[in-house]
Amino acid sequence: MTWVPPEGRALLEGTPVFGSVEEIDAAAAYAQDVMRDTRAYVSDVRDGTGALASVTSAGVAKISSKLSGRLAPGATSLHESASAAKTAFNAYAAEVDRIHTEAARLVARVDEALGTIRGQSAEIERIADAIGVSVAYAWNDVPPGTLPEPRLGFAAAELDEGQREAAVQNLRSTHEWSWLLAASLWHQALVDIDTAKTRWAQLIEERRGAEQRLLRALGDTSLGHLLSVSGDSGSERVFTIAAAISGELRGVVAEEAPELAKSHPLLAGLLADGNAEHIWDAPPPPAEVAAWWDSLPPEDRERLIAEAPWVIGNLPGLPFEVRDAANRKLVEFTQRYPQSLTPEQLKLMAEIRDILKREARQRVLYGTARPPIQLVALDMTGAVPKAAVGYGDLDAATHTTWDVPGMNSDAPLALEGWDEASRNLYRAQQQVSGFAGSNAVVAWLGYDTPGLAGVLGTDSAAAGAQRFAAELDGAYATREAGGNGVPVVNVLSHSYGTTLATIALTLVQHPVDALVMLGSAGPDTGMVPSYEALNVKEASPGQRAIYTTHASDDHLAPFGAGLAGRGQPNPGATGFGFERYSPVYGGGLSFSSDGDPAHGLKRTDGHSVIGEGEKAGMGGITSSEGHGYLDRNTQSLDSVAQITMDQVSEELANSFTRTEGESVEWIVVEGQLVPLRVGSEDD
After folding, report:
1. If 573 and its partner were Cys, which of 75, 291, 558, 651 is the partner (CB 3.0–4.6 Å)?
2. In Å, how far are 324, 325, 329, 555, 658 from 312, measured between CA atoms?
3. Residue ranges of the DUF1023 domain (predicted)?
4. Contact call for residues 361 and 373 (beta carbons, < 8 A)
């Protein structure tokens, strides 16, 4: 007798079924109640403000200010978060209902298949008994598709050969079709079970995906950002929400917090009157900063880190360990004063907190972070929050790479993607270098990046270039002052980030070792007339270490560069015909991003640094999942890692193509002016 599992559920590993739709609906209903209550609360606050309008006194004015300026906005923010949460819970409930329903059908299908196997195994055993053979098959072992040779037994001993053959043929013709049908049904039942197992595993992933979408939706609300910024205990989170709604923390408003100080008596040795208000946009010379810091006694340094962390955390020329310590104090400040943050600031701080939590988990698991994190810069004072995050030890690394993003990459929006991209590059660099700890990467999101309306101009790039140039010189100054040896300094820029980076490299005091441009939106031809204007070292005699790549499917950047009249580092880049308006910069080394199957390296199929989605966007506006310029196992990432670690293979070196300069001339064709690229002697 063949043993068959009694129930199908035992064959399905894991489960997509837990919790209930009713529980999710209850959460959505709670969010609806919060919406109702906050509407009523805001209405009451407004009524109270109106009632006080006719009363004139300092005390009443203070109360009115709190009602209208803190309590009402706080409740409105909570209402908006609850509304978004309700929408997210409803979408999650629909997904869970679908998954649970399909899961139940799959269990029933497996049960039905097992029932089929029981029935057909009994049929196989009946036939085997009828034809005089002994068979034994496991439930998941399909019987052969041909009937075993029948055996006549002792009763056939008196039959002659012809009679025995006729008897065997009779048994075969009687049972062969039944055997074949039973074996076929058994086989199909096993196929159905395997299909159900595959779909079951997919449902588990779909459930995880639904949960992740819910968490992202909840986390992307003002309340979600607040919780990310707050401490981890329940009491801390409740307190954070209360503080944010009330706009106060135990009677102390955030503006009075010492952590935001922009002046300090001890800064007088560096800045006039010790006022550091303008150090982000106009930092003092990094070499002077490094010398000043070196002259301070340890107790003064500690005092400045504790009492003026915004200043110390954002001064190019200071050791990165020092800046990291100061900026972590600013992160702690946001936990204590969440009401001081705008929605954009909250989003950025939530991303930074996630990065720091990941680092902390790694230290617990492995004894060290992989890689260690340094908060290089953190500025909440401007219209756009800005940040720079280091991966590795910038005070000791032999090779450092500074990443510069392009348009629509303000820190709150883009840190998550550049965190992944920088980690990918850090790992790839270690793989090509053959030894750990020698590299460091900085995700520099330190400027107000343009949107579609501003990307055709150069204002954002020019403004950000001042700060970025100071950071690059600061990396040189702090290492020189610290006696750790000046590292190799590389700049890796993407899209509009190349516009900024090339301007910055006309401003730096110290040359960088290499510039790498990915999907360039083009240098500004006025500020950067040629590569000769860039302070970049030579890779070999007569050849500057300027590298450029552009995926064949990426048409966005050359379109924008052509429309803006900026230059083009990649002669083969096409942008819907607008590339003709861009002069080509000569003298760079071009490498491919279109994949290298022989080495298992994927192509880049769009403009993104990190791809997402099943397909690339139309015209290569975005990359598909796994096919961005800095996604893992892409040809572009592998080449960038080799270049930035001075480990260029012979194969990669042989693939470099030196770009030839081309200018743009306007000619008349059929009565119309059209651009035409022509060869340039200046390459």
Report:
1. 558
2. 9, 9, 11, 42, 43
3. 386-524
4. no
R_g (Cα) of the chain, nearest Å: 34
* Identity of the residue numbered 501: A
Q: Are 562 and 593 in a shared domain?
A: yes
Q: What is the pLDDT of residue 26?
A: 87
User: 573 lies in which domain range?
Assistant: 382-683
Contact 363, 400 (CB under 8 A): no
CA 130 vs. chain centroid, Å, equals 66
Last residue of one domain, picked from the residues 376, 400, 431: 376
Please name the residues in contact with 202: beta carbons below 8 A apart, sequence gap of 6 or more: none
Rounded CA gap, 644 and 241, in Å?
A: 45
For residues 454 and 476, membership in a common domain is answered with yes
Last residue of a domain, one of 344, 376, 408: 376
pLDDT band at 50 (very low <50, low <70, confident <90, very high): confident
- Number of domains, the chain: 3
Separation between Cα atoms, residue 396 and residue 492, nearest integer Å: 20
pLDDT tier, 226 (very low <50, low <70, confident <90, very high otherwise)? low
Residue 247 lies in a domain: no
- CA-to-CA distance for 51 and 419, rounded, in angstroms? 50
Is 108 contained in some domain? yes
Cα 125 to Cα 121: distance, rounded to the nearest angstrom: 6
Task: Beginning with the edge strand found earlier in the chain, give each strand of the sheet holding 439-445 in spatial order.
Answer: 373-379, 386-391, 439-445, 399-404, 488-494, 514-518, 546-549, 589-591, 657-658
State residue 429 phi and psi, 5-degree precision.
-65, -40
User: Which residue, 411, 424, 416, 419, is CA-closest to 380?
Assistant: 411
With CA atoms as reference, report the closest residue to 609 among 515, 498, 529.
498
366 & 413 share domain: no
Report which of 220, 170, 497, 227 is spatially closest to residue 343, judged by C-alpha positions.
220
Tell me if 578 is assigned to some domain. Answer: yes
H/E stretch holding 254 = none
Percentage of the chain surpassing pLDDT 70?
Answer: 92
pLDDT at 449: 96
Euclidean distance between CA atoms 53 and 67, whole angstroms: 12
Residues 318 and 388 grouped into a single domain: no
Residue 76: CB atoms within 10 A of its CB come to: 17
Q: Is 171 inside a domain boundary?
A: yes
Do residues 388 and 366 share a domain? no
CA–CA dist 432, 425 (Å, integer): 11
Phi/psi-derived region of residue 626, left when phi > 0, alpha when psi is between -120 and 50, beta in every other case: left
